[in-house]
Inositol polyphosphate-related phosphatase domain-containing protein
Amino acid sequence: MTDPKLRNFSIRVITWNVAGTSPTENLRNLLGVRKPFDKNSLPDLYAVGYQEVSMRPRNVLSEMLLEQEWITPLRQILAELDYVKLISYRLQGLVLAIFVRRMHLHHIRNIYSTCVRTGVLGSWGNKGASIVSLRAYGASMSFTNSHLAAHDHGYKRRLGDYAAIATTAWCGPNGCYILDHDYVFWFGDLNFRLDERITIDDLRKAIKDEAVMEMLQYDQLHRAQRDEDAFETMTEGKISFKPTFKYQTGTTDFRLKTRRPAWTDRILYRCNEDTYQGNKFDITAHEYRSHEDYVQSDHKPVSALFTVKVFSNDTVFDRVYFFNTSDWSISRGFELWFCTPTNAQPQNLDWIGLMQENFTTLDKYLAYIWVDTRPMDTISFPDDENPILPTPRHVYRQTFSDQMVVLPGTYQLVYFRSKCDVLGVSDPFKILDCAHLQ
């Protein structure tokens, strides 16, 4: 690959240990979309990681049928701004969700999720990491939401958790470990505390003297990086915010009676800039802050904003084009047409989902069919002169089963490869005068 042009792609990462609570506070400020705001400043992708999400049986049972309660308000807010939830992944109390602007859907590929458990005996998921790997405009990215071992005396266990996650999380279709991606984002309640020689009395005095930031020199994560024991190849933005733990819930006051304050909640990043010959990937950190006004947890959420370089001439050679999509009715049946370039044919297990218009998540399809990989034996078909369609091309025609049941309304078709790689989206169309597809 010789010197292709690069474009900017912006990413906002958010981490919050919600301490088993349910969402009660407005998340707009955390997302950076409190009105008024400039739509042009919105990030291209959000990665949101929660820790200590409730594991009460009532919550777990409801999530078997409904969306996770901390994901729903994110999706509802971002839907107003034309974002789509790509994927959400849960490992017990660890929840990770990725949202992208709708216009990027065709350019996000190889979406893959996995986890590493580092809890009791290395097999319990109360500690560990939930991980999503993907490619955006040809650049590979990993997002690791982790909750490492707790307590002041748990420093060595935290180092062990880091090593286990970094060396065992294999990211499937992207063919690498998490630190080998072009861009790496690692965040969560990393639980690194202050060196044990710093007492609560030392911290009380520092807080009283408004000198708590001086305690950063005793931060265990910085020590681990200096000693090359953990995160030594990763970068963190400048910390200019107070410790993020431990607070009295409902306040911005530290809970000094039981725990020493510390910067437990962190966001780190890495760019493997020499991955492609003739290209230099790059990452710029614009913002790194905590959100002290959120008070329902004993942790404060932390966010960071980045701009990365991706390929501007990323050609999606396997894109699928729907055409001649008109309103459906009982009398006409439910026939659909799509085409692909001749060098990118459908694969086994490709499928087409029927979604509501302006869908806000990829996992809420109303009906689906498996794709028939045999092209039509024809050179003439509806919309043959459409200049948007690829040339040369293969043409496919399929019919939805008459067993599918939907209500009248406006819908779209989405062509999927694997679980959630989107290869094509149809224009909106209506299903009229019936509740059954025939």
